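User: We ran a pulldown and think these components assemble together. Before we commit to crystallization trials, I'd like a predicted model of the whole complex to look at. Sequences follow.
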Amino acid sequence: MEMSQLLLMRHELLLILSALILLVVELAAHDDHKTSIIPWATGLFALVTLVGFLPVPEGTLFGGAYQSTPLTSTIKNILNMAVLIVFLQSEGWLKKEENYDRISEYFLVVIATLIGMNFMVSAGDFLTLYIGLETATIPLAGLAAFDKYKSRSAEAGIKFILSSALSSGVLLFGLSLLYGATGTIYFSDMIPLITPSPLIILGFIFFLAGMGFKISMVPFHFWTADVYEGSPVGITSYLSVVSKGAAVFILGILLFTVFKTITQQWHTLLYVLAVTTMTIGNLFALRQDNLKRFLAFSSIAQAGFILVGLMGPEKMGMATMVYFILIYVFTNLAAFGVVTAVYNASGIETISGYKGLYHTNPKLSLLMMLSLFSLAGIPPVAGFFGKFFIFTSAAGNGYYILVLLAVLNATISLYYYLLVVRSMLIEKNEHPVAWFKSSPMMRLSLLLCLAGMVVIGFASGIFERLLSMAGTLSILS
Amino acid sequence: MNILSLFVLVPLLTIAGNLFTRDFKGARLVSAVGMGIQLILAFTLILLYLAARKSGITDEMLWMADYNWFPTLNIHYTIGVDGIAVSMIGLTAIVVFAGIFASWELEFLSREFYISLILLSSGVFGFFISLDLFTMFLFYELAVIPMYLLIGIWGTGPKEKSAMKLTLMLMGGSALLMVGIFGLYYHSAPGGGPLTFNILEIAKVHIPIEAQRFFFPFTFVGFGVLGALFPLHTWSPDGHASAPTAVSMLHAGVLMKLGGYGCFRVAMFLMPQAADEMAWIFIILTTISVVYGAFGAIWQKDLKYINAYSSVSHCGLVLFALLMMNKTAMDGAILQMISHGLMTALFFALIGMIYGRTHTRLIHEMGGLMKVIPFLSVVYVIAGLASLGLPGLSGFVAEMTVFVGAFQHQDLFHRVVTITAASSIVVTAVYILRVIGILLLGNIKNPHYEALTDAKWHERLSTITLVVAIAAIGIAPLWLSDMIQHSLTPILNKLALVSPF
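Assistant: Here's a predicted model for the assembly, 978 residues in total across the polymer chains.
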């Protein structure tokens, strides 16, 4: 193997490099200037994100344990953009006094989890997948408990690590069954050996359950709401878009390649799981007042929609799924950005506290409204296109009733999204959140999200490119 | 640039212009100018259309334009109009124009109000020019969602509840619709080849009868919700009663017509066999709509509720006539859409103006208004007479055509439902005349009313525009009827394959 081949791993290498730089800077930085790390670290990451967009060649490394395809580099770029927006939005919270000593720690740990996710996305065998998943998960528990002086945050950390450990165990058990049945851990070797035998189906179910934890699929969603509510807002948004996006991506790849021969079986499973995930997520979201919990349940429901997309033919299913994740990144981060901005300025994070927000902060309220409409799938924002294509995909395999259930769920979700809109625009309040101006970095992040929400739908080229990329799901042989 | 794209572009530019206004005067001026241009455009389009037909152009759709938006999925931005779409565009332009002037003195968040209103109208215009199911659906949803804000923020009474009910029911309808659209899409190329959302392309293929049976109810009911199909009409009275004046006008006048238009352009045109088979179910439902709406209106005390139930009745008649599936009745259905759109908009405008003066909408609290506000009262009488189908006004032309068409069916079932539906005309006369008697004639009940002033210039402009349109259709219906009948031919040809008519 030549050294130049290592460049296939450019995304991961760049991330490792920037993590190392941050480590050195942290050691060298003077105690009085710690806050100036924030713009530098964010700028560095912006550079990493930009470089990521340079074309990456296809190829495999380490005897097929690692693969790079156009689709994997796309999802890595999406994750990078998401993390960049999260960084921009974390500035206000990081500048708080209690976080002063831990600024670069935050960046380091987030980048560490991202590295794990990148490896997971590019995995060519189940071992890489598992190691990547764990690299991503363990630092996340630290992040969830970042506000360690708050008992809720500490609780979130504990809950996360316990549920992750459990789900990893389940996943690993499933993998061991699959290994036992086929005698290999490599995706490409396993493909011809997968048959609908009871042992393999059992292994697959455990594997799916383990992945289900990561993407908060019902009935494996119990940790979601508490962890989302307890964690700092930046981490919550990270959990809801980045870690979910990466996990669902690799799940899709595996379903369409390794488990292709048992498509019928996983379709049945996924049908049930998608419907329950959407419905339960929606029903629980109806009664929430805390916005973080609210968005947590809404993100469970959105995971259900992603699963609906996977029910389609493989090319369409994969493309709509990545497209949906891309839109979901911008949409959900816009919503979380507004929540963060309002929380930083006023300490309010409840729907009832948002009453009359439009009269004091019209732009923020409008952005929130747009992002909620996008989540609900209302035109002209990108969410409409995302949802429509997801449903087109599922209808392509003849699952019309599933589409009907999904769209009805989208209507239910519209109800609670409108509750927030009602609170901001319609209801009166004696003491609304006072007018405030967010920091430049926050405004930049919101602007990016807005641009994403408006452009991604109408610019059909993006979806077309994803469709053409989805032609090659895997180049392992 | 294609003239049809302007119908979406002008509202969007008006919205953009509104962003730069400072106060309510600026906002309403920009909106009035924008919608004035739109009205002129609509008239130009009607004239151009008539001229084109006169010169012998027989294309099914005129001013077609096509942009391949998502090539792999074959989603196009395809536009084009026939006579029906042109007349609906004319209707929309008139109602929006009148609506702006009817809400001329709204000051609370007026800029946001006009932006939402015009956004709604751009959705409606876009819907009528679309020939591609994807863009049609996009514009349809675009038209529905501003309603929530318009009713929720500027409405009266239990506005939040009504707004939520309306939005959710209509979105539920669009959920059904979406299934229908996917069904059409995946059956649009039975012999292989690229799938398409294009209505004209789908009309050329024969969709298997099993698929039609499955997808027709989804599509028809999906649009039917917006067309106030019994028993899914309940959003309509509450929504209309809570909405501010201009929104009631636009909603009852135009938005409900989207339902009727979609029912025949998508559901019946593309799935004629299923339409023929299942027509009887929906005929029964629409007959109930017609009669029930009329009786519902009798018992109401609130002017807006009276008119909202009367809308249920009249829109029921639209779907009823469409399901008769012959030339005369369908012609009548389109006429009824336009006629009802104009007169219900006029009604809601007048109710808003009267409410603005008397601060009540309960008919028993008012009386003798003819003596104090003669202009508005006379216009109210005109609207009433049009509504109960007096010859010389648009209502007569429409209802007459509908019932003549419906009576062409010889069998017992159609006879019975036609007679039942026709009996609603009597009931309509009862509630209209009752309101006129209590509200306008008699003694002035409240001494405070002596001081009321009659219509201001903008109110006169708003109402006269609508009255002129109503009278124009009533006196010279043939040009409109010709325009519609010519465009009905392809639809009727498609239906003729299955139905004896």
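Chain A has 19 helices and two strands. That may be worth checking against your pulldown data before setting up trials.

User: Thanks, that helps.
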